[in-house]
Amino acid sequence: MKRITLILLTLFLISGNLMAQASEAVPMADKLREDGKIWVVVAVIAVIFAGIAVNMLRIDAKLRKIEKELNIK
Question: Which parts pass through the membrane (predicted)?
């Protein structure tokens, strides 16, 4: 129960910070949106996350193979 409470409290505090930041104007982000370069930033971040996900899946597959060879459940 303490763990769930701690997780919910953490998520609540993080969401509060995000809402506070949304009200401020960021000149750099506005400039990137005007130039259309924001999509380059989004694409780079998406590629990085996709790479991390693929790497995690490969590691998981290798671990399953090793566990199967060693008969670990």
Answer: 38-57
